[in-house]
Amino acid sequence: MMHFVGVDLGASNVRAAVGDRTGEIRATARARTPAGPTGAAVTDAVREVVTAACSSADVDPTDVAGAGVASMGRLDLAAGAVASAPNVDADVGPIRLVGPLASLLDLDRDAVTLRSDTQAGAVGERFHAHPDVEDLVYLTISSGIGAGVIADGEPLTGRDANAGEVGHITIAPEGGMTCGCGREGHWEAYCSGNNVPRFARALHERDPVDTAVPLADEGFDAADVYAHAGTDAFADRVLERVTALNVRGAAAVVHAYAPRVLVVGGAVATNNPETVVEPIRRRLPGELVVDAPEVTLAELGDDAALAGALVLAIPDADRP
Question: 1.10.8.140, 3.40.50.150, 3.40.630.10, 3.30.420.40: which CATH number matches 132-298?
């Protein structure tokens, strides 16, 4: 049996999976993603998790036939590395992935495929849930916002596999909220899990009203806003604004790529499908001048990028 490895390197956790040529996962392992002090520390964490997943699957790492890596951050394919990433100290330098994994698994560098986490999510959702769909967008609404695109049956990667940074589409040209990248008006600045709390506080400062939403709590987060949906007028006002902006952003994505299916994933969406995904499904057609796609919740949930990374490890000729 041929064995393959998939890796999902996120801002909080790094996960690895070992599977076969069908993309079925046999074993997994995970660990916290180090914030530094060097890129080598993150690389070591990736290697350790891959080794643990192989051990759990009773597979010698040198028997692995290919590896796929789904990663956060801005990629540098020539270096086989993450050039910069959130939640990692700015001065750690690049996070090398392709070379160290090739060495661990005794593979040629060409047998290790590095892609963004959203691109891997699109591959995973298409392979496992929508195999007959040639045009698909995987939209993740999580701590950040991004997209992976399948166009005419092929992943759209862009320069250095950095396509899909749709969270930096300007959806509020008047500004008001500053994105983590330092620019104003970006989709991610309003609607990502990290920024919904900031947006809620900004709205409350402009128009203070009584609310049960714990705006002053140190641990206040997006989940607190969504938990009060339908029971608190202020929470509903915040979420109506967020919904309108999500629809505006989703419409921009659909106009750009004309997918047949728009898969919505990420923690914010999967934890709140009725307040995130359903309004997009209902309102999106009225915002489009192209055919409306089917809008669906990600079937793989939090495993979309990991499953996609495993699929990316399998050469086309070896896939069923």
Answer: 3.30.420.40
Q: Give the CA distances from residue 194 to residues 119, 187, 220, 270, 280, in Å, rounded to whole numbers and listed in that order.
A: 21, 12, 10, 15, 20
DSSP string, 233-280: HHHHHHHHHHHHHHHHHHHHHHHHH--SEEEEESHHHHH-HHHHHHHH
CA-to-CA distance for 268 and 169, rounded, in angstroms?
A: 19
Q: Which residue has tokens 């195999």?
A: 131
In degrees, rounded to 5, the angle at the alpha carbon of residue 302 between the alpha carbons of residues 234 and 105 is 150
Class of residue 271 by CB neighbours under 10 A (exposed 0-12, middle 13-18, buried 19+): middle
Residues of the chain short of pLDDT 50, as ranges, are: none
CATH code assigned to 3-122+303-318 = 3.30.420.40
pLDDT digits (tens, 9 = 90+) for 167-187: 999 999 888 899 988 999 999
Residues 6+ apart with CB under 8 A from 316: none
